Amino acid sequence: MQIVMITSRPYADMAFFANHYKLRRFPSVKIGSDPQRLITNFYNVKFTPFSALYDKKGKLTKVYEDGINWKELVSLIQ
Question: Are residues 29 and 50 in the same domain?
């Protein structure tokens, strides 16, 4: 499983978040900055947090428009 976290916040804010939560400990977590909101526009994000799940073949399987349901996510991973 890979987790990609994207923000439209400034790079410095993203770096602070990553350092604060020590995200480098998790090699499957990638973070990125999207100041032009290309991802936001692609998914037509209205609220955050927003989550999109893809299967191993890269097919979109589920969208959570108001945050992810952690119990459901854990069951999908197992």
Answer: no
**pLDDT digit string, tens, across residues 59-75:** 988 888 887 877 887 78
The number of distinct structural domains making up the chain is 2
Return the pLDDT at 68: 81
Beta partners for residue 65, in sequence order: 67
Please write down the long-range contacts of 55-59, taking CB distance under 8 Å and 24 or more positions apart.
none
Model-wide pTM > 0.70: yes
pLDDT at 78 over 70: no
Which domain does 26 fall in, by range? 1-34
